[in-house]
């Protein structure tokens, strides 16, 4: 148990120049909150310990407990290390953040109020707008109102790219949270964690990066935990690539702005997730829609992105590990409750 107990731990990852430019905006915005009772931890995935992220934090925010990973651990493993520290420290909640963000002063206060409103809430997603980092300007363009899910088992950030309107948020409950910013109930994470025989994985460490938030949202939902949108908790995110439109053509065109590595991670992790939930009794409509979309996706890959096919070899090697995770899934609700979120 750590001496400096806090009910809320806040964690983020740093990685070379990709994050260093944001810290002079992100950290003052985070520390100048109306809510003060938290502890900040961070994992540095940079190549060397004496990098610009570490130096900036040491010189300006020495209270932050930053640990150098020694290698690039990716998203899931780095956050699992921080979540374990939060649990060992006696925390109740963990606020996972990307450093390419800024926040309104009452952001954490509103997130905490939302998660404390119902003991069955497993995660809270904030209202996230686009942050135009080139001019350091806030916008009213939506980046995410939580994760949305459709019958094809395709995930997206709800209302991304739209202008803010009061009726867009709808009901406060959403399918899932985006990994960019989420307040996680540590009791819920312990409930759905995968025990690999050595330690517990909260985010699935088969997923180096991308889709791990979709996967954890799914597991929380299946175990009966709620995920809600805190409409008054406002953040701003400088997303590198935002999706435009939801048609098959839009999806294909949006891929032009993504790197090969991102496509590889996303492609592989989508298959990992689908194989984990493949035995669930979804309706015929959902099963057919999912199968048809995956067939179309494979045809697209074969024609335009054949380099992704090698990820199927990686997937084949991971099948035993995926099977173990599938066997440990906590299924406490009828999947029809999940299908209610599929639009």
From TrEMBL:
<feature type="domain" description="Glycosyltransferase 2-like">
    <location>
        <begin position="13"/>
        <end position="132"/>
    </location>
</feature>
<dbReference type="InterPro" id="IPR001173">
    <property type="entry name" value="Glyco_trans_2-like"/>
</dbReference>
<keyword id="KW-0808">Transferase</keyword>
<dbReference type="InterPro" id="IPR029044">
    <property type="entry name" value="Nucleotide-diphossugar_trans"/>
</dbReference>
<protein>
    <recommendedName>
        <fullName>Glycosyltransferase 2-like domain-containing protein</fullName>
    </recommendedName>
</protein>
<dbReference type="Pfam" id="PF00535">
    <property type="entry name" value="Glycos_transf_2"/>
</dbReference>
<dbReference type="GO" id="GO:0016757">
    <property type="term" value="F:glycosyltransferase activity"/>
</dbReference>
<comment type="similarity">
    <text>Belongs to the glycosyltransferase 2 family.</text>
</comment>
<keyword id="KW-0328">Glycosyltransferase</keyword>
């Amino acid at each position: 148990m750590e001496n400096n107990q806090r009910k809320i731990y806040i964690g983020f990852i740093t990685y070379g120049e990709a994050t260093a430019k944001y810290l002079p905006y992100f950290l003052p915005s985070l520390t100048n909150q109306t809510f003060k009772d938290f502890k900040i931890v961070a994992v540095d995935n940079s190549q060397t310990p004496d990098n610009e992220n570490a130096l900036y934090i040491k010189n300006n925010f020495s209270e932050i407990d930053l640990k150098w990973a020694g290698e690039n651990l990716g998203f899931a493993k780095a956050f699992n290390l921080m979540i374990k520290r939060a649990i060992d420290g006696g925390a109740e909640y963990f606020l996972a953040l990307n450093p390419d963000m800024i926040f309104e002063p009452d952001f954490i206060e509103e997130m905490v109020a939302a998660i404390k409103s119902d003991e069955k809430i497993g995660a809270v997603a904030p209202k996230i707008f686009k942050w135009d980092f080139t001019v350091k300007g806030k916008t009213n363009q939506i980046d995410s109102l939580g994760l949305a899910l459709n019958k094809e088992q395709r995930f997206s950030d709800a209302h991304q790219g739209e202008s803010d309107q009061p009726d867009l948020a709808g009901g406060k409950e959403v399918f899932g949270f985006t990994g960019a910013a989420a307040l996680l109930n540590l009791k819920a994470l312990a409930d759905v964690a995968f025990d690999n025989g050595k330690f517990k994985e909260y985010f699935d460490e088969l997923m180096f990066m991308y889709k791990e938030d979709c996967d954890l949202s799914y597991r929380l939902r299946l175990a009966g935990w709620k995920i809600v949108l805190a409409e008054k908790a406002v953040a701003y995110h400088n997303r590198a690539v935002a999706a435009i439109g939801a048609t098959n053509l839009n999806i294909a065109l949006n891929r032009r702005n993504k790197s090969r590595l991102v496509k590889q991670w996303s492609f592989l992790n989508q298959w990992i997730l689908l194989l984990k939930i493949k035995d669930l009794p979804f309706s015929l409509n959902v099963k057919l829609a999912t199968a048809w979309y995956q067939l179309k996706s494979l045809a697209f890959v074969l024609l335009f992105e054949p380099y992704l096919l090698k990820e199927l070899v990686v997937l084949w090697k991971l099948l035993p590990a995926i099977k173990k995770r599938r066997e440990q899934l906590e299924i406490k609700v009828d999947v029809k409750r999940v299908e209610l979120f599929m639009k």
